[in-house]
Amino acid sequence: MKLLKSKLAVSLAALSILFAGQINAGDEHHEKSLSFKSTKLTDNIYMLQGKGGNLGLLKGDDGLLLIDADYKVMSDALKSELGKYGGVNNLNYLINTHWHGDHTQGNKALGHHAQIIAHDNVRTRLLTTQEIKLLKIVSKPYPKHALPAITYAKRLSLHINNEDIEVVHFPKGHTDGDSVVFFKKANVVHMGDHFFSGMFPFVDVDHGGNVLNMAKNISVVLGMVNNKTKIIPGHGPLSNKAELQAFHDMLINTSAEVTNMKSQGLTLEEIQAKGLSKKWAKWEANSFFPTKVWIGIIDGSLSN
Ligand SMILES: [Zn+2]
Question: Among 4, 56, 229, 288, which one has the highest count of C-beta atoms within 10 angstroms of its own C-beta?
Answer without folding.
Answer: 56
